[in-house]
């Protein structure tokens, strides 16, 4: 992974210059957004570098993991589109990739033959079981700069932000 320090330095310098030109700019919020995006991008690149040798990208893997973690290992493409934040055409591509690899199967739902059901296969479960453990140490290392308490606080704050900016959540009803 390339160094993020020059990017962080440039980010602060750029925001400082813009703040001088537009004093009303919400500097703190702009810094937070840019830092979140910069960090998320770096984490995603590192994660995808682990998936690439297996012929997967993040959206393929997230879809497979949603099936792996679901109660019965199945979901409709529509449900997966919502959870994976994908368009139907990309979900079709994802399903094709995963089915071709034998990681999922597609069938018609018993209650409605028009509805397609995607189900993780035993091979898909074995694949996830082998793929995940080697990914844990780099993930843990990414957050090693935080204490346990800081990680919990960071998680709580990110969740609070996610729910606050979600238009589907009524933040006025929160305690």
Automatic annotation (TrEMBL):
One Pfam match: MarR_2
Domain of life from the UniProt record: Bacteria
Keyword annotations of the record: DNA-binding, Transcription, Transcription regulation
Entry keyword DNA-binding: yes
Limits of the HTH marR-type domain: 29-163
The protein, known as: MarR family transcriptional regulator
Source organism (scientific name): Luteibacter flocculans
